[in-house]
Amino acid sequence: MESKYQVESIAEEHRHMTYWDMFATWIGANANNGTWFIGGIIAACGFWGGIRALIVASSISYVFLMLVGYMGKKTGVTTMALSRASFGIKGSVIPSIVNLTQFVGWTAVNTFIAATSVSYILHSFLGWPVYGKPGGNLGLIAGIAVMSILHLLSIIAGQRSIQIIERIGIILVIIFVIWESIVVFKDVSFSQIGHWQVPSNLKMGFGTAMDTLAAFNLAWVTAGADFTRFTKKTGTATTAPFLGANLGVFGFAFIGLSATISIAISSGVYDPNNSDPSTIANRLGLGIIAMLVIMLTSMTANAVNIQAAGSALNNMFSKLTLKQSLLITTIIATFVTFIPVFYGSFLETFTAFLDYVGMVLGPIISIMVVDYFVIAKQDYRPSELGNPKGKYWYKNGVHWTAFTLWIVGVLIYIGLQHMAFIQKYTGATFIVMIVIGLLYWGIMRLKKVE
């Protein structure tokens, strides 16, 4: 009798993802609207403060992407299936819920920004008011519908269509970044951008920027194995995601940061609410082609987001097929995309979402990585991940040590975030990950001694 907790492990002969495919996937994942918007948000640190935070937070985060990518390559299973080994077969529902909600959230973020671009296109052709103006919600709602239909069509077409989107998308994205850079630096010099001073009432601490970027970058880590399980070579599973994700985030966050500051210099007003790529592209006069590229970048990023959310749902309800899970998560994301329409501020909604991601995700990743590389010494048995009588069942299907430490990590994060020193210098995320990782290693070692 087949277990209801069954896990699919991709066999070596069915792994066909090349280094270029993996590299393109992770550039496409980060070369998107959300990354651009993040660049605009960290402009509140000033140009050089934002650059420093971007380099440090992204590099550390994507080391974890490499580690989880290696886990996927070695076992052939998704990240959420891997979480069963550390959290228990039933306990893995916690990482799965976190993954489902955060990737549905990221899908909604990218869809919302792309829908804003659609509203500008509709304004050009039909004269509809753009989003943000009286009556502009109509164009936004139409944009959300258009983008959601495109996402559904790509899922129905299958994995091959996603690879084609990624391959075409990466070329157009690179061209767009170069084009945007030329326009930005034509009117405002690099020296002016570098010396721009943030208004004191809007200034962001370096530690806060670190947490913002950590939440953004670590979100991809829990999708790592979902793609690297289709690879045969270690380099394809480790260096390709690391280099691709870093190149994507540096390129698009840099242009978001620079464009936001350039508009603040030329207009005399810095408003982080206007940091989204559609608004900036419109202010720079880039036209309809830019809006179409922004729509495409939404599709390339959401190909990864929807895949990860669907895998999480599939881990929770294994009777669903992966395609059914993907379709369900896309529909849920469509409804979530409407939240900022009624909430009133996309920036406030986005910031609250990042706070949630940073708080819950770090401890999960830390526990999973320590469990695989230190406790299990890279020896997971995929066949046991779905066995309710096996080693990963723990007590009633839950590994209470991991679950308890996850709660402790969330509480530590909440406490640290209110400390002025943390906000100004370090951020809470990576400190929490180190503390929880050490605690997990120490407790598990004591258990072995007993």
UniProtKB/TrEMBL annotation:
On the tree of life, the source organism's domain of life is Bacteria
Is Transport found in the keyword set?
yes
Location(s) in or outside the cell: Membrane
GO terms, molecular function = cytosine transmembrane transporter activity
Which InterPro entries does the record associate with it? Answer: CodB, Pur-cyt_permease, Pur-cyt_permease_Fcy2/21/22
Q: Which residues form the signal peptide?
A: none
Q: Which UniProt keywords apply?
A: Membrane, Transmembrane, Transmembrane helix, Transport
How does this protein lie in the membrane?
Multi-pass membrane protein
Record GO cellular component, one term: plasma membrane
Q: In which family does this protein belong, per the annotation?
A: Belongs to the purine-cytosine permease (2.A.39) family.
What's the protein called, per UniProt? Answer: Purine-cytosine permease related protein
Q: Which organism is it from?
A: Pediococcus stilesii
